[in-house]
Amino acid sequence: MSENKGGCFVAFCVIGAGVLVGVGLAVDRGLSALAERYGDAPFEVLGALLVLAAALLILAVPALVFIVLRRQWFRTRHIYPDASTALFPVVDKGKAGLVNPNHERAQIMAAMLANANGNLRAATVRSALEANPRQWSELPAPEPPVLPTPVASFPQRVEVYSSPIPPKLAIPVGVDGNGRPVALPLRSLGNVVIGGLPNFGKSELLGSMAAGLLRQDPRGERSQLAVIDMKLVSFGNLPNLAGLRWPVATDLGEAHEVVAAVRAECARRYVALREAGARTLEEYEQRTGERLPYVTVLIDEIADLTCDDDRGRRDRFLASAMELARKGRAAGVGLVMATQRPSVDVLPSSLRNLAGAAVAFKVQRNHDSAAILGEPGAEALPSTPGRCLVKRGEVIECQAYACGLEGGRFDAFLASLPAAGLAAPTWPVRGTAVPEPVYRAESADFGGIPVFRTDAVGPYTAEQIAHIRARYAALGSLKAVQRELYGQEGGHWFYAIRETVQSGGDVC
What domains sit in the chain, N to C, each tagged with a CATH number? Predict the structure, then answer.
């Protein structure tokens, strides 16, 4: 290769010298003619410049031709692998020096670049070198194999009754794509927002949350429920359970009474915590030996409360909800708020932003997802009932638990739980800042029957039982009977009246 290059260079130099001499003679004759006509002085300088320019041009032409021909030679030349070693030779890379492609991985690359005959075009080599000068001589270590991302596999339906019991109290939500349970711990949770289109699993999830908490603590010693269900779909027939702190609210009046009762309970707990010098329920129990159970308020369709036509009542609910959302966590009180329409008028951003977790089922638009989760994504969920996104820090896709509201599975589970005791709740109530109202009947007696007192202890007398039955026959409503006898609704005495009417037995 070097001999061929030397011969070509000599030939070009001879040709260039001849051309230079010819041009020089022609220029000399031209200058002589000009000198005879105009004088010598101006043209001597011009002649010298022209000669110099011609010399430079003549020298550049062969060099340029040489470069072009050399490049063309490289483009058509093939590199042949050695017959004995099957290795390709060293490749001249130009100014950067020689490059050795005989590295094992470089040979593999060269073989891939070679044509059908096993030859490697020099132009292909140079193109590869110019694209990545290091890939031949300094190949990096091979990258670890990229394993395919496992495809998430979600079950079509998973019941909460088969979910594992967590070691600490937590609200069950569902399972992720790997089959792992997703739960929200009560201790650090606070409030939860649930949203999505109808028939995608919100009510089933609320029932599963209730069932999951009741499975963990059926006697209500560590966890209590308060339920607002004005649709009468999920919890309208919830029986008198030990884990149910107040009767289920099924209308606006009852809903506001439950919220007020929860607010009063929260205030009492703050007083108890302050007197004990404790900041958390766990610390309170350590200091006093007494337990304050968590209270979880489940609200199925919060729009019924936030979009109330009675503006004053609506504003009072929002004020109470905001107070509970801000202060409830330290007192062990949390709100779980579900809605089909997660717009600002239904769920104000000031209330949503106080939620420690969110669950979004299928929605129509990305801003609906943002209203629930704070970011889009739920609009892209598949149209599978129960499929949702759970956000607590990070967003996790999961299949929400089902509880069997239809078909009687949920009712059968509730029937297996212990009923509420007849005595008042055992957890301490001390030094209440906001005392729960205790009403007395206006009359001293009812036809010779002693006054029905909320602080009474012991079974109803025969006269009281007969009177309760008579008033129920006249009024046709257990709540109306309780309002007449006690001046209040809900709580332990509602169930006492109901059991008296239904069984006729002695009930305290």
Answer: 2-137 (no CATH), 160-415 (3.40.50.300), 437-508 (no CATH)
On whether the CB atoms of residues 493 and 479 are closer than 8 A, the answer is: no
The mean per-residue pLDDT over the stretch 457-468 comes to: 76
Q: What is the pLDDT of residues 57-90, one digit of tens each?
A: 777 777 788 787 777 665 555 566 665 555 556 5
pLDDT at 27 over 90: no
Q: Is there a contact between 235 and 248 (Cβ–Cβ < 8 Å)?
A: yes
Q: Which of 170-174, 418-422, 502-506 has the highest mean pLDDT?
A: 170-174
What is the token pair recorded at 421?
């005791």
Distance of alpha carbon 229 from alpha carbon 233, whole angstroms: 7
Report the candidate in 202, 206, 152, 150 with the shortest Cα–Cα distance to residue 397: 152
The per-residue DSSP string of 146-183 comes to: -PPPPPP---S--BGGGSPPPSS-EEEEEEETTS-EEE
Q: Are 113 and 132 in contact (CB under 8 A)?
A: no
Contact 317, 254 (CB under 8 A): no
Tokens at residue 99, please? Answer: 């490059």
> Which amino acid makes up residue 367?
H
**For residue 333, what are the contacts with CB-CB under 8 A and spacing of at least 6?**
262, 265, 266, 269, 294, 295, 296, 297, 324
d(CA 358, CA 376): 13
Q: What is the pLDDT of residue 408?
A: 82
